[in-house]
From TrEMBL:
Tagged with keyword Iron: no
Chain ranges of the Histidine kinase/HSP90-like ATPase domain: 487-577
SUPFAM superfamilies: ATPase domain of HSP90 chaperone/DNA topoisomerase II/histidine kinase (SSF55874), GAF domain-like (SSF55781)
GO molecular function annotations of the record: kinase activity
Keyword Kinase tagged: yes
Boundaries of every GAF domain copy: 64-211, 232-378
Domain of life, source organism: Bacteria
Residue spans of biased composition, Polar residues class: 1-10
Protein name: GAF domain-containing sensor histidine kinase
Record region (Disordered): 1-21
UniProt entry keywords in alphabetical sequence: Kinase, Transferase, Two-component regulatory system
CDD domains (UniProt xref): HATPase_UhpB-NarQ-NarX-like
Family annotation (Pfam families): GAF_2, HATPase_c, HisKA_3
């Protein structure tokens, strides 16, 4: 046995071959590597599945629709590894009405401009709602290209979002991170997310509908409680318009009363909107010249894209989508309720919104019916009193005055002194004049009243008093109720309201006086304040409308400084025949 050298190292034991040839060992290594790859895929799939479940829980944790849509887009981008994502909401016209984006800053989004309309590649998913995946969207034959300031995009994955078998919108993902295109696994997991998103969207929509229904029912209950007490038409209509605008989250609401004899609509109440819209109060619009007259006469709602094209308004009235609902009971059309959104508002109302609005409009019509019944009863009481007073004046007062005049006339020749006879004759003349005045009063009392114009004037003054903090002085002169024709009354009340509104908003006055006079074949409205005054040459908006209302009836409108300070507004038109 040979001795080992001092620096020699012991040899390592040979690796056991396990009876495998070199070729078999290579094959075993490949199988082991494949098994490790499969294990890695299983682990990755499990992690993505857990991420999908977390995303489903996240998007279903909020019942606000807008927040839910934003979470869906964010979750889709995270699951598929996309840099950019968007969810396009498809409207009834098969166009995109909303576009929720992720991955693009608000500044870039603002520079891009308007939303896409759903054409080109985006429109493919609308026309054919099935998953769409491509390595480069710019090379597709239907690609429209991108607008200026839009970030470059190539890889693309689109998946439809269905709600109860109806297309709600589409998920658009772009720019796969870490790869040139999206994979089959990406498509499958986004399809699964879209299915869960449909359920979350439906829940959010049902919650939003329940919330809107609760608000409409509360407004309807308020109108119902109004029916239980004393109803004033102006107050009832103002409440209807205000609640309808608030609950519908609209920009403008109008109440138009229908006149079946003249077949016209009169703008009775304006709530919200700008100065041009508020100046419409009192405007008379022929029903035949409106786009909604035929529909509401048949008891149907009408939808318009812009109120500017719905009727020949005297002032510019440009809005967004608007709903016109009839205010009708049984076979009687009282008017219409108009609810309009702003020019940049949402799309038209849904069927659910229309049903809720219909119920509210029905209650509003009942309020109008009750108000009209109360006004008619009050009018009958007034007419009875007027007839009684007229009869007493004719049968008692005039007869006594006439008898007194005859006695004075018989005594006058007996007077020795000429000045005494002259004074007796003057007294007889005064009695004659008094009898004529009383007979004129009797005629006024027995003249049928089509409407209490004096009441409307007083109501307008009372409304202004609430904003001014004091009650304006009011002077009514002449036979206002009987002499002012029906076609002139809406313009007169509109002029008075606009004049008082200007005094409230601009005058900063301590005193306001209103005078409405009927004299010498004309009716005039004069509103004077002691405020800061205004430049007549700078009149615009509502004041221009007042001038137009005067010129339409062959009248005149002036705006001049008052003495010692303030402004005097004078509007006068002839009464006609």
């Amino acid at each position: 046995m040979a001795a080992s050298t001092p620096n020699s190292r012991p040899e390592s034991p040979p690796t056991p071959s396990l009876g495998l040839s070199p070729l078999s060992r290579v094959r075993l290594d490949e199988l082991l590597q494949e098994m490790l790859d499969r294990v890695g895929e299983v682990v990755t799939s499990r992690e993505r599945l857990r991420a999908l479940l977390d995303a489903v829980v996240a998007i279903g944790s909020d019942l606000d629709l807008r927040t839910t849509l934003q979470r869906i887009v964010q979750a889709a981008c995270e699951l598929a590894g996309a840099r950019y994502g968007a969810l396009g909401v498809v409207g009834p016209d098969r166009m995109l009405h909303d576009f929720i984006v992720h991955g693009i800053s608000p500044e870039v989004h603002a520079r891009i401009g308007d939303l896409p309309h759903g054409r080109g590649v985006l429109g493919l998913l609308i026309d054919e709602p099935r998953p769409l995946r491509m390595p480069d969207i710019t090379k597709h034959p239907k690609s429209y290209g991108f607008p200026p300031n839009h970030p470059p995009m190539h890889s693309f994955l689109g998946v439809p979002v269905l709600v109860r078998d109806r297309i709600f919108g589409n998920l658009y993902l772009s720019e796969k991170q870490g790869a040139t295109e999206f994979t089959d696994d990406d498509e499958e997991i986004v399809v699964a997310l879209a299915a869960a998103a449909g359920v979350a969207i439906e829940n959010a929509r049902l919650y939003a509908l329940a919330h809107r229904r609760e608000r409409w029912l509360a407004a309807t209950a308020e109108i119902t409680s109004l029916l239980l007490g004393e109803v004033r038409r102006t107050d009832a209509l103002a409440l209807v318009a205000r609640r309808a605008r608030e609950v519908a989250e609209a920009e403008l609401s109008l109440v138009l009363l229908f006149d079946p004899e003249g077949e016209t609509f009169t703008v009775e109440v304006v709530d919200g909107g700008d100065e041009a819209a508020r100046a419409l109060a009192g405007t008379v619009v022929p029903a035949a010249e409106t786009s909604f007259g035929e529909a509401v006469a048949a008891g149907r709602h009408d939808l318009v894209d812009d109120l500017a094209h719905a009727a020949p308004w005297p002032a510019l009235l440009s809005t967004g989508p608007a709903v016109i609902a009839p205010l009708a009971t049984a076979d009687t059309l009282h008017g219409v309720l108009v609810i309009a959104r702003g020019a940049d508002g949402d799309g038209p109302a849904t069927d659910d919104d229309m049903a809720l609005l219909s119920s509210f409009a029905g209650q509003a019509a009942l309020a109008m019916e009750r108000a009209r019944g109360q006004e008619e009863r009050e009018l009958l009481v007034v007419l009875e009193d007027r007839e009684r007073i007229a009869r007493d004046l004719h049968d008692v007062v005039i007869q006594r005055l006439f008898a007194t005049g005859l006695q004075l006339q018989s005594v006058a020749p007996m007077s020795i002194r000429p000045e005494v006879a002259k004074r007796i004759n003057a007294a007889v003349d005064d009695l004659d004049a008094t009898i004529k005045d009383i007979r004129r009063t009797i005629f006024e009392l027995r003249t049928p009243m089509s409407a209490a114009l004096r009441t409307e004037i007083r109501e307008a003054v009372e409304v202004a008093a609430e904003s001014l903090g004091f009650r304006p002085d009011l002077e009514l002169t002449g036979p206002i109720d009987s002499a002012v024709p029906d076609q002139l009354r809406p313009d007169l009340t509109a002029v008075l309201r606009e004049a008082l509104s200007n005094a409230v908003r601009h005058a900063q006055a301590d005193r306001v006086s209103v005078a409405v006079r009927v004299h010498a074949g004309r009716v005039s409205v004069t509103v004077t304040d002691d405020g800061v005054g205004c430049d007549p040459a700078a009149a615009r908006g509502g004041l221009v409308n007042l001038r137009e209302r005067a010129e339409r009836h062959g009248g005149e409108f002036t705006l001049r400084p008052a003495r010692p300070r303030g402004t005097e507004l004078h509007w006068s038109v002839p009464l006609g025949d």
